[in-house]
Amino acid sequence: MSDVLILAGARTPFAVWSHGTTGRGTPGGALKELDPFDLGAAALRGALSRAGLKSADAGFTAFGNMYQVGAHGCYGARYVAHRAGLPPESIGTAVNLACGTGLLALKTAADAIALGEAKIAAAVGADAPSRVRRDVFVPSFVDVSCGRHIAKTAEERAGEKGLTRAALDEWARRSHLRARQNAAALAAEIVPAAGLTADDAPLEDPAPERFSGARPLFDDGSTLMTHANVHGVVDGGAALILAAPKAAPGRALGRLVSTALTGVAPERMAYAAVPAARLALERARWRARDVDLWELNETFAAQVLLDCAELALDPETVNVRGGAIALGHPFGATGLRLVLSLLLELKRRGLRRGAAAISVGGGPGIAACVEAL
Questions:
Q1: Per-residue pLDDT, 2
Q2: What's the pTM?
């Protein structure tokens, strides 16, 4: 890939959706009045400000959200750009790769720069499940090709590999503990939205019994996966600003080294992050052990533990600020949150190389390698 710099990024707080309860034990829905375009625009304005740019400087916007529902969902990129104050001549496109949408938006914006179509581009993602009808939301996690729920494919794979419920619960608890321990670092990612200034999903008291006593995810007698060791459902948006080196106004946050998009059979969809990560590493000419920090989307604790084993990763290098089990998974925004977290944490620790990967329902996997500057 031609040099593409990541100048800055921002995200909104991630707020538990209106059908859930926050980590403080209060009803969710703090961002329910904002649609995905509002959430994306809030993140984009924050990212532009942190990059030292004006709205008019962004010539291209790649915006993605998983639930492109309603009469205007297909125009998302245009609405986000407009609400963020970008001029009418600024162009954009909508992208969708379900859970991998944020990383696809990053790749799309980077491609526009690499091809000379833009000097400065924005990658934006957002989802607002609070505003999605339940009869649309619930069935979306079952693949029509194989008739399987993505979580079931992860659970079966975990059972085959001998993972225990205790191991899954411990990873889930770790996610909440890391989010609490790194609250100040997470705050550096966030710009306020609708009066909310911090994530509200992480548990205030992640006691072991909250996980060991959790309700199983499925009612078929399996107990490995529960509502406590899978990702939380939240509303939120995120954005990164990309630039060609000559267009960068100052010091960049990092460099996008490589991206990779792969696929596996739908029955193995929970495995898809692994081949994507391997291909991104190959394109970067890195080995897994060369990577200082990893962000593996915590769709499920089972999936992260299996991915760590497949890639031979040290768990202490993975999701060091907590992951989607604690923070939540706002689908279209997640990939961008992973990269933003990576780059900020790499710089905070004086480290250099990071990688992010996501398994996507239906079998795609998508990954990216970045360097902190």
A1: 66
A2: 0.97
